[in-house]
Amino acid sequence: MQTHFSLEQLADPRLAVSEAILRKCVHCGFCTATCPTFTLLGDELDSPRGRIYLIKEMLENGRPADSETVKHIDRCLSCLSCMTTCPSGVNYMHLVDEARVRIEETYKRPLADRALRALLGFVLPYPERFRLALRGAALAAPLAPLLAKFGQTGDRLNAMLRLAPRFLPKRTDFPQASVSPAQKPIARVAILAGCAQKVLRPAINDAAIRLLTRLGVEIVQPPEEGCCGALVHHLGQEHEALAQARHNIDVWTAEIDKGGLDAILITASGCGTVIKDYGFMLRLDEAYAAKAAKISALAKDVTEFLGGLKLPAPLAAQKPALAYHSACSMQHGQKITSLPKELLKAAGFEVRDVPEGHLCCGSAGTYNILQPKIAEQLRARKIENILKTAPDGIATGNIGCMTQIGAGAGVPVLHTVEWLDYAYGGPKPAEI
């Protein structure tokens, strides 16, 4: 793509990166074939190629974001399917992230939109606030039919109530503290406790800790650890995102200095994609650039780490047939595609591929709240494709997908590591 940035503009290192990304795009259109919003809406501006033109126009002319640009960028799920498809290596993730920051800096959203986004950024990254909000949502659920009168704002509030569980699971069996399994551990790792996942399904990390400690891995959970920053990062709230990233970098660096870490394990693939990008996000911060790059290099999805261990023979009990839903942040963001399925197969499960597996389920962080109509269409399409495989259960690697799919699937939806823990001697999940 031809660009016309001035030398003065290119002196800004953020714009220089965006310009380099834009120049890689050759307008081929392969991205449109795998973009969920273009598949549903058929609008060129709701495809990666169309959004790239809008971003180029905004950045190149140095102008504030307008309502048309905001509408189509907001509709992007950041599923990154386009990056898997692109033959030219266009880093759409970094480009759309920069566009979201520019939008938040230069565009004044309607008051209701600003208020909801501020609320999401204030509540979701903080487990105790989120837990309190979910209790309030359960009480407010009977009011959902009344919200239809309030247009888009009502739709969004209705989506929040619909997604909120009626009952919260009990707090984790493993409080945030060091967990030491064997006298001679084979590795020492930190595990991200997370924010939303910690409230919605603490059983995921419980299963990971049980499985890993049985395999001889020492696990550290620093109590100071917080949200990875992904939620506010995708809202364009970059100041908050970088502050949360720096905080965790300091916490994990202290653990490295204390006893060394062989890996930092993440059980929510949406978090993993962002943590692996800390090195890029903080590249201009002299105090954190090197530390951030080191943390990104240590970050691994839990299945990546398990793939490097010698696993025992699974128990002989009959295993369910599983549909594997590959979260977008797993397959497109981290490029982890076959490994989780291979681990499940080795554990004795029959694993069935889901048709249109490259398409997003519509969760995408806060997308299913901010864009509920599109998210609901994608959810229905995903569940329909999953059920075509006639599974006994569903495996996936991201809490957002589990929440989005779970209510309508009619079969148990568990994290991959929960299925693996069960297969290798852990307790039977209550959902089975």
UniProtKB/TrEMBL annotation:
It is an enzyme of class 1 (oxidoreductase). Its cofactor is [4Fe-4S] cluster. InterPro entries: 4Fe4S_Fe-S-bd, 4Fe4S_Fe_S_CS, Cys_rich_dom, Glc_ox_4Fe-4S, Helical_ferredxn. It catalyses: glycolate + A = glyoxylate + AH2; (R)-lactate + A = pyruvate + AH2. Keywords: 4Fe-4S, Electron transport, Iron, Iron-sulfur, Metal-binding, Repeat, Transport. Gene3D superfamilies: Alpha-helical ferredoxin. SUPFAM superfamilies: 4Fe-4S ferredoxins. Pfam families: CCG (PF02754), Fer4_8 (PF13183). Its EC number is 1.1.99.14. Binds 2 [4Fe-4S] clusters. One of its GO terms (molecular function) is glycolate dehydrogenase activity. Residues 13-45, 66-96 form the 4Fe-4S ferredoxin-type domain. Component of a complex that catalyzes the oxidation of glycolate to glyoxylate. This is Glycolate oxidase iron-sulfur subunit.
